[in-house]
Amino acid sequence: LKRDPKYAQVTEEHINFFWRLLGSESALIDGVTKDATDDIEPFNADWMRKYRGHTKLVLKPSSTEEVSKVLKYCNDNMLAVVPQGGNTGLVGGSVPVFDEVVINMSRMNQIRSFDDVSGTLVADAGCILEVTDNFLKEKNYIFPLDLGAKGSCHIGGNVATNAGGLRLLRYGSLHGNVLGIEAVLPDGTIVDDLSTLRKNNTGYDLKQLFVGGEGTIGIITGVSILCPRRSNAVNVAFLGLESFEKVQEAFKEAKGQLSEILSAFELMDSYSQDVVYQVTKNNRPLESEHPFYCLIETSGSNSDHDNEKLEKFLEHVMDKNIVSDGVVAQDATQVKSLWGWREGIPESLGYWGGVYKYDVSIPISELYGLVEETREKIAGAGLIGGSDEHPVVSVVGYGHMGDSNLHLNVAMRRYDKRVEALLEPFVYEWISKRNGSISAEHGLGLAKKKYIGYSRSDTMIRLMKQLKDLYDPNGIMNPYKYI
Ligand code: FAD
Ligand code: 2HG
Ligand code: ZN
């Protein structure tokens, strides 16, 4: 990949403009043309430390008008930009590739309004997910999305990636929950579509282009989102199972018997749990070990009713030998600690060095086959061992079983070309043959840019490019990424 010379380099004149507009506190520079104002390295490196850009300028606008002025100036001066939220994305989309200007949204972090009858929240894009959910908690509502990076990711970043997370099974995708969007196009146009209506069939639903657009056509500055009531009865069960067939049976039974109160059904293989154990040394939830584990969460309004349902379900799946062992959290602390065995997987996997990550949708019956085949392939090549010569620490599978979304992760002592050559394009071909998706919920970013053709036809890619050219004719928005 080469820097495209059509983009301008940041000059002292540009910096003077941004300083006048935003103040030096909100326009951080790496001291090339002026003295460094701050350490901008964190804005150049992604969460996995796999991708690293070389920006010299980070802008932190604090209003939609400022975003509009910044983008118009960049567009007029051919300065390429990267929108950045909490920088927790897992496909290298949120950091520059070369010297693109980072537009970081952390200063736009105000809740604008909340209607406690309809549950509609209107908020700035830079609100942190957990902070927003805590605000909603006080009103007895819940954000319709939850994920392990909640303490840092922004709701604008969540919408820009169309993040799925742990409760999509219950609350559905952001394509349904986002009611309105305020965004800025590269020419400075403010797209004011911050509707709070549930129903609005008046022509093309253009806001959907920004949901999952990964910052390639504009910057989201505000979102309006439909939030459900918070359930006052939440139960979590952690189960051990002997095969992936049994996991599928348990899922079928959970849908049938827990139906309307089922709020999460997560899968973890034994390898993923071994990794969490090795890193955290926490006491394991179950006494014995099993090839597979599931975390089931129910959320309802009546704890007696929910407890009875969950107990009956557990009795049934144990009697029928579908589940070998299980534990139900007795209080909020245990709920948190059981969730830790699932939510803590990505962080624990990063303990040794690098992680190759594949976030894929596969027809459910074949979901775990990819992990088994990948593990065999890597073991066959003698690369497992966690040493310099045998750099693979573990090949693990986990994910959102309820959405047929698998996370295949290969934990490494360090990134290694031999392993990479075994994994790619093998994984993508495997998925394509089964009509799966090479990106279920994380997006394409830089990581999967070359592979979009495994999941999208030439016609679909052409239509995407036409849209990109229409909204961003100069191509300044998040260049070098998937489109
Ligand atoms: P960033 O990482 O800053 O940006 C992501 C992309 O969106 C980039 O392309 C960026 O340019 C663009 N972008 C950011 N803000 C804006 C904006 N305001 N306007 C336009 N474009 C913008 N993802 C899931 O789907 N499900 C999970 O369960 C999940 N769990 C995770 C757990 C961990 C521990 C981590 C580290 C990540 C996880 N992710 C998950 C991945 C990630 O997509 C989410 O963390 C989150 O949605 C990204 O939000 P962010 O604010 O950090 O965005
Ligand atoms: C999760 O479900 C996230 O925990 C992260 O989507 C998955 O790191 C990954 O591959
Ligand atoms: Zn996930």
From TrEMBL:
Keywords from the named record: FAD, Flavoprotein, Metal-binding, Mitochondrion, Oxidoreductase, Transit peptide, Zinc
Enzyme kind, highest EC tier: oxidoreductase
Cofactor: FAD
EC number: 1.1.99.39
Database matches in Pfam families: FAD-oxidase_C, FAD_binding_4
PROSITE patterns hit by this protein: FAD_PCMH (PS51387)
Coiled-coil segments on the chain, per record: none
Function summary: Catalyzes the oxidation of D-2-hydroxyglutarate (D-2-HG) to alpha-ketoglutarate. Also catalyzes the oxidation of other D-2-hydroxyacids, such as D-malate (D-MAL) and D-lactate (D-LAC). Exhibits high activities towards D-2-HG and D-MAL but a very weak activity towards D-LAC.
Protein name: D-2-hydroxyglutarate dehydrogenase, mitochondrial
Organism expressing this protein natively: Oidiodendron maius (strain Zn)
